[in-house]
Write a structure and sequence with these properties.
Elements (H helix, E strand, L loop, with lengths): L1 E6 L2 H12 L6 E2 L12 E5 L7 H4 L3 E6 L7 E2 L2 H8 L3 E8 L9 E8 L6 H24 L15 E2 L1 H8 L2 H6 L8 E4 L5 E5 L3 E2 L1
Parallel strand pairs: 1-2, 1-3, 3-4, 5-8
Antiparallel strand pairs: 4-6, 6-7, 9-10, 10-11
Length: 205
């Protein structure tokens, strides 16, 4: 039996290295990490940057360590959205992959606090640490099918895309809307508490 770990991140490479040293008897680890091994029986995606096609997963058991709490945080950029939504918790979801994005049955969720000074990057670093621990806890269980699953509540499902996040980057309309002599401007506060105001005519103040 052959297992493949698909990844586009260093944390996935670390998981693959660990898996290589902890393979149960009778299993072989594919050396490929950037595209699907047709001979793989089980595929585990760890922060892989591409959605798998139905033809690639047909006849295989496929799993994903998703950076976000499902079903409320499907798609991409979820640590950014957690901050923008004011979430108190972010997390990692281990789930089965089916033909829809982040849609399969949930095996486990590990959550962690979103702190007032967190950034998307700091949440990603924290999430990566949780993925590595979660991977070690569930790797053998996945191979031996020793896990339970639960269906996602699709009434709570929200899918975020890279395009959604790109739209948030352009603050022009917000700055224009709040540029008015004598009134408070748009602003952001830095980590050290400095208030930076934005003005459509004068730029950063």
């Amino acid at each position: 039996m052959k297992i493949q770990i698909l990844t586009s991140r260093a944390i996935g490479d670390a998981c693959a290295d660990w898996a290589h040293d902890n393979l149960p008897k009778g299993w072989e680890l594919s050396e490929l990490t950037s595209f699907v091994d047709e001979d793989a029986d089980v595929i585990i995606s760890v922060l892989f940057d591409r959605i798998l096609k139905p033809s690639e997963i047909k006849g295989k058991r496929v799993y994903n360590f998703h950076p976000g709490i499902l079903p409320e945080n499907a798609g991409s950029g979820n640590f950014s959205w957690s901050i923008m939504k004011g979430d108190k918790k972010a997390g990692i979801t281990l789930h089965k992959i089916d033909e829809k994005v982040d849609h399969g049955d949930i095996i486990a969720i590990r959550d962690f606090d979103v702190l007032p000074d967190d950034t998307a990057e700091s949440l990603f670093i924290a999430g990566s640490s949780h993925i590595q621990r979660m991977f070690k806890d569930y790797f053998v269980k996945i191979l031996k099918k020793k896990y339970k699953t639960s269906k996602q509540d699709m009434s709570l499902r929200k899918i975020y895309s890279k395009k959604d996040l790109d739209k948030m980057k352009d603050l022009t309309s917000i700055v224009r809307a709040l540029t008015f002599t004598g009134k408070d401007r748009a602003f952001f506060t830095t980590r050290n508490g400095r208030r930076i105001e934005l003005d459509f005519n004068d730029g950063v103040i």
